[in-house]
Amino acid sequence: LHSPMIARVTGEDTDSLAGKAALRSYWRQALEAAPDLRFACEAVLVGSDVLTVLYRNQRGRQAAETFVFNSSGQVTRSMATYG
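^ thats the sequence. predicted structure below, dont judge the formating
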């Protein structure tokens, strides 16, 4: 996962995470810090081996998350960007 939110959530000087344990810890912290978290999907864009979801969060902030898939359909890379 690559996201500018990682440093804010974890307090660490990094913008990327790898592995299930790191992702689980990040999302646990993120969800605890934002119990009112909501997403309104604006669009889903499909590519050959990628998917991008455009949405707004509960504060009205626009964001996009792109997921890259391997041949088995597993996400191998995820990137988040914010407006």
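The first helix runs from residue 5 to 10.
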